[in-house]
Amino acid sequence: MTTETTPAAVEVHDVHKWYGTHRVLDGVNLTVRPGEVTVILGPSGSGKSTLLRVVNHLEKPEIGHVSINGEPIGVRRHGGRLRELSERTILTQRSRIGFVFQNFNLFPHLTVLDNVAAAPVATRKLTRAAAQELARELLGRVGLADKAGAYPRQLSGGQQQRVAIARALALRPGVILFDEPTSALDPELVGEVLAVIKDLATSGTTLVIVTHEIGFAREVADRVVFIDEGKIVEQGPPSEVLDTPQHERTRDFLSKVL
Ligand code: ADP
Ligand code: MG
């Protein structure tokens, strides 16, 4: 059971990020409790992908930091200050965070089974045999047990994205980040991917999902966060943010995507 003393799965502390003079994240604070499903909405260019990349430490914020399960990522506390960690330690931390991209990013030269089994072997968490057994189990979970020997190019986009989700699960991450997981898919393939994400959501996996699928957000999100120009404009349960938004910018955005 989760209590107030359990560390947050993800805690974003006052994060500022800019490229040159362009401020992309402007003081973002966000808490995701274990088992919670957070959906992030916002216009194109508002900083959603950058926020996920900062959580994963693929981008380093100029100000602020992110903690995963109470542990600062990329930095450690040293006499009240934060110091950079080594690249190797950051890679270990990153392996506890799953990331599913818009364009699947599977390894084209590896079979589906090896795409899923590769990371646990590379990080020496499992032997090759154990990783392949786990990969078969996870492929079953996303409905692709019969595709283990296929190569990514032989699969539909929806199937490739389900492989990418199985691959993210293979490291048993504490949280999985999704960056517009269905926006590169033909419309008829969106449902099968959302069904897999919904299965994860209802089984208690901590998820942070950037998506424009408002109906899906309403169904699975514990919390919806609306971001615009690098700032969180409002957040709350889907019934509040989607049905009775308090801010003009949220209303304007929803009127365009609904
Ligand atoms: P979103 O995912 O909400 O569409 P992004 O986080 O991708 O937005 O981008 C936010 C802003 O930051 C955009 O104006 C984008 O052009 C800019 N941006 C993103 N990545 C970079 C980068 N590596 N260098 C310079 N500008 C960037
Ligand atoms: Mg984006």
UniProtKB/TrEMBL annotation:
The keyword Cell membrane applies. Its EC number is 7.4.2.1. It is a peripheral membrane protein. Pfam families: ABC_tran. One of its GO terms (molecular function) is ATPase-coupled polar amino acid-transporter activity. Residues 10-254 form the ABC transporter domain. It catalyses: a polar amino acid(out) + ATP + H2O = a polar amino acid(in) + ADP + phosphate + H(+). InterPro entries: AAA+_ATPase (IPR003593), ABC_ATPase_HisP-typ (IPR030679), ABC_transporter-like_ATP-bd (IPR003439), ABC_transporter-like_CS (IPR017871), MetN_ABC_transporter-like (IPR050086), P-loop_NTPase (IPR027417). It is an enzyme of class 7 (translocase). One of its GO terms (cellular component) is plasma membrane. Keywords: Amino-acid transport, ATP-binding, Cell membrane, Membrane, Nucleotide-binding, Transport. It is found in: Cell membrane. It comes from the Bacteria. Belongs to the ABC transporter superfamily. This is ABC-type polar-amino-acid transporter. It comes from Streptomyces phaeofaciens. The lineage of its organism: Bacteria, Bacillati, Actinomycetota, Actinomycetes, Kitasatosporales.
